[in-house]
Amino acid sequence: MIDWNAVEDCLVADATAALRALFARHPEQAFYVAALYGAYRELDGPIYLPSLAANSLQALGRDTPMSDPPREFHSEAWNPPDWQWPDLDFAGPALCEWAARLDRHARDASREQWLDSERRWLQVLVAACRRIAEALAALPMRAPLLVVFVHDEEHAETLLRQCLDEPVFARLFPGQLAIERERARLDALAPSARAEALLELAQRHDSLLGWEEIDERLCAIGAAAVPALLARVRADARDWRAAMLLGRIGEATTEVVEALRRQAGERGEASARAWAARSLALLGDNDWLFAQLERSAGTPALEGLCAPYRHSRNGSRCRLDYAVLERLLAGPARTVAQALEILKPGSGYGSLRAGHRRSAARTAFGLPVRAPACGDRAERARPRRARRRAHPAGAGRAHRPGRRSRGALVFGYGAGRLEVRCAALARGGRGRPGRPGPARARCRAALPGRLSGRAVGAGRSTAAPRSIRRLAG
């Protein structure tokens, strides 16, 4: 068990001592900020200590003297890696011991325990920052205010607000308050009106919201956003973002399919045509895409048919179905070569959801996946029996030597989730065991080089079994 109060006490004591020492060594500096940042963690994996950083107004205003830091949060002034002192040595033996125990606890925890540990860990960091600021407030400081906060890529603004009192936050970051007011204004609108307002913001260079947030908000509206997106696609054949969002929302109405078909088939910008084709595939309009592919090889239809097996599927309602891929790889050699180039490892990959893993294991070339290159760590949220059903290789156990792998999918880690890296190559195909069938022969002929022996992900790598590496040999 982790004594979170003890961890917090050690963190506060060590960080406060390190900052006091830094301030004493540089009495001429007006320190305005200190931060705990870079608290690296992986879902179902390790949780590490953060780094400690500090900065002064003199270091920030090397060219122009400053009496106050800039009020834009997403700037050098509030980004610890850009500071004069980005990595202070502060962790003592007791804190290092707690860090090691936290790491072991996180690696051995269930999914629910890991998520609870992450939540508690972020709470400890926020409470520690508030206590550090209180401990340093009595020191003679040349800056008008010392800000101590948690800098985290995933929860940046939320943790910043938790570390500061409301008046301080309003004084330092008025731009963030304006963004919050804009979000509140949008949330008060009816769904259809909100979609119109978001699309208008997407066209403006002075929008307070970034395009990623706008896209996520439009997808969250769902079917009520479809009329506004349809109007954009019909009015401008170059509007690739509206076409993309129609695929992610997943409303396969006749009007949506006809509009996307028209955009995919027209002569226009390649990106808009490709995204229309991808959205058609995500909506299940595969027969039309195959018909377009037969008429002209290399059309956006091929890009669309590959979309459900790549990152384009992320965030959509598309169901993973390898029958479409099997049909695609049973086509002409040139089409197979182009498809494998699009699907080659490292070209983009999609996250697997719980309902997808059994499909991936069962339908790769119609043959079972014998040895996915992953452990069961990424599947901890599922019962062990379910993991074994989904992965006949034994839910992450080493591949048994001497057994033929008739088909395989290479899995890897990315962004803390289990992910598909590429489509399978079938040993034996649909021919007799040990003899390459026509599908495998085309795959081997078209595949450039060999399959990589490692599936590399975020923060770790997993060696692929030798049988998988032999598939391309």
Helices and strands, in order, run as: HEEHHHEHHHHHHHHHHHHHHHEEHEEH
Computed structural class? mainly alpha
What is the number of E strands?
A: 7
List low-pLDDT spans.
363-379, 383-473
Number of helices: 21
Which of globular, elongated, flat, extended, rod-shaped describes the shape? elongated
Q: How far apart, in Å, are the first and last alpha carbons?
A: 49 Å
Strand ordering within the main sheet: 2-1-3
Rg, alpha carbons: 27 Å
Let me know the largest β-sheet: 3 strands, mixed
Determine the strand fraction and express it as a percent band. Answer: 5-15%
Helix content: 40-55%
- Mean pLDDT equals 76
Walk me through what this model shows.
The C terminus is likely disordered. The chain has about 475 residues and is mainly alpha-helical. A hairpin with a 4-residue loop joins strand 6 and strand 7. The radius of gyration is 27 Å and the shape is elongated. It has a 3-stranded mixed β-sheet with strand order 2-1-3. It has a two-stranded antiparallel ribbon with strand order 4-5. The protein has 21 helices and 7 strands.
Which SSEs are present, and which pair or pack?
Layout: H1 4-25, E1 31-37, E2 51-56, H2 57-60, H3 93-108, H4 111-136, E3 147-151, H5 156-163, H6 166-172, H7 174-187, H8 191-202, H9 211-221, H10 226-235, H11 240-249, H12 254-265, H13 270-282, H14 286-295, H15 300-306, H16 322-329, H17 333-342, H18 354-363, H19 384-390, E4 407-414, E5 417-426, H20 438-446, E6 454-456, E7 461-463, H21 466-470
Parallel strand pairs: 1-3
Antiparallel strand pairs: 1-2, 4-5, 6-7
Helix pairs in contact: 1-3, 1-4, 8-9, 9-11, 10-11, 10-12, 11-13, 12-13, 13-15, 14-15, 17-20
